[in-house]
Amino acid sequence: MNSEKRVSIGTGASAEYEATVTSPVNIAVIKYWGKRNTDLILPTNSSLSCTLSQDDLHTKTTVRCSPKYKQDRLWLNGFEEPVVPTHGRGYRCLQELRQLRKVIEDENPTEPKLSEYKVHIVSENNFPTAAGLASSASGYAALVQALANMYNLTCDQTELSKIARLGSGSATRSVFGGFVEWKAGEDPLGSDSCAVCVAPETHWPSLRALVLVVSDAKKGTPSTSGMSATVSTSTLFEQRIKYVVPERLKDIKEAILNKDFKTFAEITMRDSNQFHAVCLDTYPPITYMNNISIGIIRLIHMFNSQVDPETNAPLGVRAAYTFDAGPNAVIYTEESNIKELVSIITHFFPPSQATSLKSYLPSAPSLFDIPAL
Ligand code: DP6
Q: Which of 26, 32, 92, 241 to mutate to test the pocket of ligand 1 (most atoms within 8 A of CB)?
């Protein structure tokens, strides 16, 4: 997260305060899907993700408060939202942070009363919103961090992750960089449902994420309603929560700490597949992947079954796919495989003329646009 300290504009009683934060998206390898408390956004299972480099997919949010502002206002990707709904998730995050600011003001009467000022929020994603690329994760993480900076709050990232959670479950994890676990917790009030850093981004420098944009259309079934339907109708889901996820979490954390790509990749692919299986087991079924997504799955398994042309020895598991609530793929691999993988992907899925291959940087996640069927 690129988080700037707040700046003040003007002095005295008319001063305005502003902060800007850039927050990257995170891509789950053990998926969060299901809430045990929909109001407090408490998940049915712990989840784990990698926060991508913020040079690529991110949300940039600027917040400003002023004694002159008459109401809270929000601009998303250049358009103003008609009203900031006071029952909405963003408003809830704002109110939580205002409360924390008020504590500071009550303790220090000389502090300006920012908790009483209205706030203007300008937020922009540099990638398709709501196309299953975790835009709510980076969006709420950026909002919460920017407000915390503007209010000069001293709470740590773990505390902020709980407030980001009230915006969107996956945002809990975007508050940290690197490999992040969102611990489901046990407290019915959610005091222990927060993010923890499993390993920093510097831990596994050869790991890469390629983002294959299959479609930038808004997703059909929003995550919130989709997971609620799964919890109430899928029988497979119960098995996943009870018997599968706890073991997988333990094993993938170990694989990350040991930089064991094969285990990391196998668990990542299996968990993505099981998440989409419980979506299909939801009644009526939810389908997020399309034929191109399935083609990408086949291609990666083909890539992983290649043998050395000279020795005939298997080259092993060198890439892993994962899909969130949309058809777009994220491929995890190691830097040494990038060149070969990119040439195979672009051979089978040539980038569309209109959108072309976007910024391929070996040191950062890359975006490819794949023409839809
Ligand atoms: C498939 O965080 O968007 O990306 O908490 O209802 O806002 P809400 O859901 P959201 O769900 C993300 C689901 C997922 C898996 C994941 O990121 O773990």
A: 32
Task: Report CA-CA distances (Å) from 60 to 125, 134, 359.
Answer: 7, 14, 19
210, amino acid identity: L
CB 174 within 8 A of CB 185: no
Cα of 220 to ligand 1 centre, how many Å? 14
Say whether the ipTM exceeds 0.90.
Answer: yes
- What is the mean predicted confidence (pLDDT) over 277-296? 95
92 exposure class (CB count in 10 Å sphere: 0-12, 13-18, 19+)? middle
Question: Going by CA atoms, what residue is nearest to atom 4 of ligand 1?
Answer: 324
Predicted confidence at residue 5, as pLDDT, reads 72
For the chain, the C-alpha Rg in angstroms (whole number) is: 21
Q: How far is it, in rounded angstroms, from Cα 91 to Cα 165?
A: 13
- Tokens describing residue 281: 């087991």
Under a CB-based contact definition with an 8 Å cutoff, are residues 172 and 182 in contact? yes
- Which residues contact ligand 1 via a Cβ below 6 A? 28, 31-33, 41, 47, 134, 136, 168-170, 223-224, 324-325
